[in-house]
Fold this sequence. Notes:
Radius of gyration: 32 Å
Strand order of the largest sheet: 1-2-3
Order of helices and strands: HHHEEHHEHHH
Distance between the termini: 80 Å
Strand content: 5-15%
Number of strands: 3
Low-confidence stretches: none
Shape: elongated
CATH superfamily of the domain at 14-91: Fe-S cluster assembly (FSCA)
Structural class: mainly alpha
Amino acid sequence: MSLKSVNDILSLSEIQILLHQQPLERLLKCWAEVVGTTIAHHTQPLSIQRDVLRVATSSAAWAQNLTFERQRLLVKLNEKLPDPLVDIHFSTAGWKRPQDKANQQKTLLPSEHPSYLDDEIGIKRDRAPTKNANAAFENWKTAMQRRSHHLPICPQCQSPTPPGEIQRWGVCSICATKLFSNI
Length: 183
């Protein structure tokens, strides 16, 4: 039995790891480096079948332009891969845009909005239609008075204000709008 150095053993284990990796995994690791960041942003390698790489693109225009560039990309990719690819097929099929955390807008639940009022305030929602406009107004006025009875008062305009607005801006939304529009 021959003795081997630690460096030889480590390099052998790294080689074995590389040999056991799937071809697509190897390709994904070097994709952005080979094609460039702009192309990588608009493409997603999906699979390798029979030495043909299938790549999803963000638009048909990208698919067409990259089809013209596929020979150049094949040469660059085959330099990085142990098993050479024969061809690349570009298509919009299978495209799924990765979610950019910075650009993604969080969906706000109604209960998370500063102006949200709990149903615990004692509001009865009458679903019965009213007979005329005056009766509808009276129903609305009564409901608003009931709703606003337990609400904190805006320190600026003295009107009942949802607690979330006071916590967020220190005043009601109308006063906050006036303050922010003057900035």
